[in-house]
Predict the 3D structure of the following.
Amino acid sequence: MLFDNNDVDLDFTLLNLAGLTNTNNKMPNNFTTMNNNMPDVLTAKEGFLRGNMFKNEYKPYKNLTYINIKPTSDREAKLFNVMQYSFAINDMNLYLDLHPEDTKAMRLFEEFCKEAKEAKKEYMMTYGPLTVTKTKGDKFDWIDSPWPWDNLGGNMYV
């Protein structure tokens, strides 16, 4: 390799590059996945509401907690379903970036992808496209959808 047979110690770690030193060479205590033991994963809904898919990683600010979102219409419920699975996919993707060999996490990621695809299909069949690239015929259907400021009697964005 490029740096083989060098006298110079080129031990660059993230902590060293950041100007910090890690003298004990251990991961932080709250990061318990050193031996491919994936932390406990929440449901897509619970993870979405908490903002984190992993059970022991939720750290509330002071004594505050998250709000349990309750959709008030079928449209909001279907959109909430799409949003929670999309969040779960993103959070599991971040975990898999650091633990690509974790087969249990990969199976869970694939399951979330399958559920997200089904949730998007169900929403689009009933209420139209979720993105501007999904059109039917020669008309942009997305223009007919409610805009974020159109409150349909329920929550503003869900």
Summary: Residues 8-12, 19-35 have pLDDT under 50 and may be disordered. Residues 41-144 form one domain.
